[in-house]
Amino acid sequence: MTHTSSEEPHLLIGVLALQGAYDAHSQSLRKLGATPRLVRLPDDLQGLDGLIMPGGESTTMLRFLEQRGFFETLKSFVHDTPTFGTCAGVILLAKDVTHPAQKSLGALDVTVERNAYGRQIDSTILQTESSLPGGPLEMVFIRAPRIIHTGGNVKTLATRGGDPVLIREGHLLAATFHPELGHDIRVHQFFLDMVKQHKAGAL
Ligand code: GLN
């Protein structure tokens, strides 16, 4: 007998897997009932409901993207498909990157300063209130970028010392920390809710 009773749409979410922390994102997605697909080539973007761009090293990811002629395809994909960038993923999504300046997809109306909170050894875990329900959110920061400017349509959902660390602009979500490395799956749940809204034509 086939199972037809579920009213929840089934979500196929890409996880950019050129380099970095992509595996943990796939696990968070599976815990929430979505199907992850590792994205290594431009064709892997086809048919996805959304995409996660993980943390790692943005310069290295950029090099892979350019080698494979992937950059332009990804740029048009993130223009209109829900995308969640974490850490290096935020750097790739941003309109402007400083310290040092670096090419980016220019989709998210923010300026980010790379490695702004110090060296690897200064990476830290914080518990902070956010706009998400359910109490303080665990935030793992690893050589995080700092969002130093946000455009008028950007909504800040959580801050660290006054800086936005979780933000949303329309179909784009960005976290300068690593929600995939903690046990808390509320940020991924929030992203999947955005994807559902988009799929339903409400975003
Ligand atoms: N420092 C990295 C970069 O500039 C980002 C760090 C991370 O993704 N954890 O690309």
CATH-derived architecture: 3-Layer(aba) Sandwich
Uncertain runs are 1-5
Q: Report the end-to-end length measured between terminal Cα atoms.
A: 35 Å
Main β-sheet, in a few words? 7 strands, mixed
Indicate the overall shape: globular
Helix-residue proportion? 10-25%
CATH topology: Rossmann fold
Q: Taking all residues together, what is the mean pLDDT?
A: 93
Approximately how much beta-strand content do the residues carry? 25-35%
What's the number of domains?
Answer: 1
Report the count of strand segments: 12
What's the SSE pattern? EHEEHHEHEEEEEEEEH
Supply the CATH class.
Alpha Beta
User: Which class best fits the helix and strand makeup?
Assistant: alpha/beta
CATH superfamily: Class I glutamine amidotransferase (GATase) domain
Strand order in the largest sheet: 2-1-3-4-12-11-10
List bound small molecules: glutamine
Calculate Rg over CA atoms: 16 Å
Model description:
With 203 residues, this protein is an alpha/beta fold. Helices cover 25% and strands 30% of the residues. The protein is built from five helices and twelve strands. It is globular and about 40 Å long. The chain starts with 11 loop residues before the first strand and ends with a helix. The structure holds glutamine (GLN). Glutamine (GLN) binds next to α4. Glutamine binds next to α4.
